[in-house]
């Protein structure tokens, strides 16, 4: 298998904890489990599985901290003030660093989530407001020693502009990521390619690379197909959902739709012709280590012709 310098990343932490381990996650937040011995054990098992995938294939690994909800508004819902959130973000970096156990080339990526829901746009911020909002978490992750940050499941361009500017001001690399609906457009209706191009233009291309996450490959494909080659070349990471259900359907679901890992791997590999520069592969909602292993293997076996 030719992997062409692929990097393994992790999958749907929250859905694994919730549906596989039966752990309650108020507001879909995993970071409070850092204060719980059983929660830490469950997260350690989760992360160890992806390290094993990388080790078995001789590939590097990057793991995201369990901090997707560790920002001000969601923290407040969970009873966390600014000081508690700073400590939680720092503890998450330390936890993932410990899990990586000194592996050469392994990276800790500090995960930043949207101010809103992640599937629904809700109240919009200006780029300046978004920069101010995300700056505290970016600085916490940087000060704790994260190698870079990711801003995942973003639903509109202005928030991404603010997140990228916050990372640039803090001097830490960032991988921003949009999610898309079943038609390949962002939840605010804008085209994926247009949104990436706008953010790059407004931030002087400061993002390290781009990612698309929290959507099935069948939903990502039309958005990629309508993007320009220059924009597609900026996309270096994919973290897809296991399910073909829409975001609205997933929100209403009581049971996990994990799909078929092998089929998902094939579906992700089919995107390679559109985004040949993708080198970071993982999963999002509904996925676990089985899906990521299948995705990495299928991508490495695919061709771009």
Automatic annotation (TrEMBL):
Entry cofactors: Zn(2+)
Q: Which GO terms describe its biological process?
A: methylation
MF-aspect GO terms: metal ion binding; methyltransferase activity
Name the positions where Zn(2+) binds.
214, 284-285
Show the Pfam families listed in the entry. S-methyl_trans (PF02574)
Q: Which domain of life is it from?
A: Bacteria
Q: Does the keyword Zinc feature in the UniProt annotation?
A: yes
Residue ranges constituting the Hcy-binding domain according to the UniProt record: 1-299
Q: Which InterPro entries match?
A: HCY_dom, HCY_dom_sf
- Protein's UniProt name: Homocysteine S-methyltransferase
């Amino acid at each position: 298998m030719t992997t062409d310098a692929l990097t393994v990343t992790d999958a749907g932490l929250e859905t694994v904890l919730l549906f596989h381990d039966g752990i309650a996650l108020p507001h879909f937040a995993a970071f409070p489990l850092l204060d719980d011995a059983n929660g830490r054990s469950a997260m350690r098992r989760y992360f160890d599985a992806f390290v094993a995938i990388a080790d078995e294939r001789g590939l590097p690994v990057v793991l995201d901290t369990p901090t997707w909800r560790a920002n001000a508004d969601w923290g407040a819902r969970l009873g966390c003030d600014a000081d508690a959130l700073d400590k939680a973000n720092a503890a998450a970096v330390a936890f993932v660093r410990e899990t990586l156990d000194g592996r050469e080339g392994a990276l800790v990526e500090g995960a930043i989530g949207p101010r809103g829901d992640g599937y629904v746009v809700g109240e919009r911020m200006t780029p300046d407001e978004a920069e101010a909002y995300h700056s505290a978490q970016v600085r916490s992750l940087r000060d704790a020693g994260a190698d870079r940050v990711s801003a995942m499941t973003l639903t509109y361009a202005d928030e991404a502009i603010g997140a990228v500017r916050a990372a640039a001001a803090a001097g830490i690399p960032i991988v921003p990521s949009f999610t898309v609906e079943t038609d390949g457009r962002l939840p605010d209706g804008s085209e994926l390619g247009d949104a990436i191009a706008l953010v790059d233009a407004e931030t002087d291309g400061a993002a390290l690379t781009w990612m698309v996450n929290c959507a099935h490959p069948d939903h990502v494909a039309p958005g990629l197909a309508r993007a320009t080659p220059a924009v597609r070349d900026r996309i270096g990471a994919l973290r897809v959902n296991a399910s073909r259900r829409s975001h609205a359907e997933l929100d209403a679901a009581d049971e996990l739709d994990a799909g078929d890992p092998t089929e998902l791997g094939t579906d992700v590999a089919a995107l390679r012709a559109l985004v040949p520069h993708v080198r970071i592969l993982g999963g999002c909602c509904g996925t676990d280590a089985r899906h990521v292993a299948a995705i990495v293997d299928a991508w490495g076996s695919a061709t771009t012709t």
